[in-house]
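Design request, tokens follow.
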């Protein structure tokens, strides 16, 4: 048991509020590994209390509005308290992706409730949604947005993210100190540091080794969860930045403006002309069509950069040559697959781990020529680039 002073009544529940595909199952496992906290799988508790309140309203709120809220609280607490008793812990936290839809009801039913708002970059949510639902956006709350944008799943998922994130930001603003914000990217980068505000909000001591224990302890599988978490053995950051593979021109107009407004509020990179291509792109007539600006990236970070001259395969410092007419982005994780076979570049282009920018790629001949020269270079030097871009050892 924790000996930390409880900052608010132990009966006050806490709700994790997030979009789908934002790492909420990972956060749930981390919270559930705390000796004081029980965090079950998806319960749709918010939907339960919202349905109770709605039904009571249709009946004229017998006993009055406060009685309705008390009744909803009693029904939900009866279920959660029995779950808590079985867990042997003293606090419950609910993590359901439907909570974002019912924030007003949750605040009304539990005026002392706490909320943890978990965010993830829009384009990473889009990439994860496409991966999880390759045959059609039917689950996770995506369906309504897919029906509104049936020919463009990227726009549908971006609209979903915008809707849920807007609700979350508005709810966060209304809570006046009863919430904390956490970003998925920060969580996977340093779980212990990212969780400190959450422990403070809940009034419990920080749990040692929670990131390790989360994958050692048993978590019930009664509710829906991320399909990949059961095959995961540690907190990993390799999914951060995969949204860079999504072309920026698939999110345009007012949708892009609104998405960027929320991204800016959350401190994320914007979806702009540099998206997916960290740094400048070819600028037009002043660019040298015979040069290829080759960049090795990790998410939105450039790890290595060199300019390749097509006709002789020589490599140059970007500061010593004219602007290149083409930019080729290679994700570091793709490098090992590119070393043995020049044809592997085409496979990587289809996977989005190699991306091409510039007027040169407006013609098949130009694209073939550039990718051929890049393929030759990478088949010879990919191993060296893996070593050159290896993460520095921790001190």
């Amino acid at each position: 048991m924790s000996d930390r002073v409880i900052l608010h009544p132990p009966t006050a529940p806490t709700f994790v509020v997030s979009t789908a595909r934002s790492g909420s199952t990972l956060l749930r496992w981390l919270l559930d590994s705390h000796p004081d906290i029980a965090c079950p799988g998806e319960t749709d508790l918010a939907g339960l209390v919202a349905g109770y309140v709605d039904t009571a309203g249709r009946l004229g709120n017998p006993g009055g509005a406060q009685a309705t809220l008390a009744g909803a609280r009693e029904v939900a607490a009866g279920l959660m308290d029995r779950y808590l008793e079985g867990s042997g812990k003293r606090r419950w936290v609910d993590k359901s992706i439907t909570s974002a839809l019912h924030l007003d009801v949750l605040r009304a039913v539990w005026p002392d409730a706490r909320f943890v708002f978990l965010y993830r970059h829009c384009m990473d949510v889009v990439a994860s949604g496409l991966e999880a639902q390759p045959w059609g956006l039917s689950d996770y709350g995506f369906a309504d947005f897919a029906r509104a944008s049936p020919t463009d799943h990227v726009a549908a998922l971006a609209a979903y993210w915008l809707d849920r994130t807007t609700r979350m930001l508005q709810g966060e603003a209304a809570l006046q100190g009863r919430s904390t914000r956490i970003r998925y990217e920060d969580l996977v980068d340093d779980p212990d540091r990212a969780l400190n505000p959450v422990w403070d909000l809940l009034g419990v001591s920080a749990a040692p080794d929670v990131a390790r224990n989360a994958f050692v302890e048993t978590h019930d599988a009664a509710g829906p969860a991320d399909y990949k978490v059961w095959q995961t053995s540690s907190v990993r950051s390799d999914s951060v930045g995969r949204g860079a593979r999504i072309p920026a021109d698939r999110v345009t107009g007012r949708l892009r403006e609104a998405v960027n407004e929320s991204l800016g509020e959350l401190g994320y990179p914007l979806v702009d002309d540099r998206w997916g291509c960290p740094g400048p792109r070819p600028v037009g007539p002043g660019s040298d069509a015979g040069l290829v600006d080759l960049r090795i990236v990790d998410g939105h970070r450039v790890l290595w950069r060199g300019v390749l001259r097509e006709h002789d395969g020589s490599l140059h410092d970007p500061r010593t040559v004219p602007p290149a007419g083409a930019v080729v982005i290679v994700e570091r994780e793709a490098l090992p697959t590119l070393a043995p076979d020049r044809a592997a570049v085409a496979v990587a282009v289809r996977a989005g781990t190699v991306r091409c920018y510039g007027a040169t790629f407006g013609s098949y001949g130009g694209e073939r020529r550039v990718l051929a020269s890049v393929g030759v270079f990478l088949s010879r030097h990919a191993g060296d680039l893996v070593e050159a871009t290896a993460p520095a050892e921790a001190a």
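Comment from the thread starter after seeing the answer: thanks! The longest strand covers residues 288-298.
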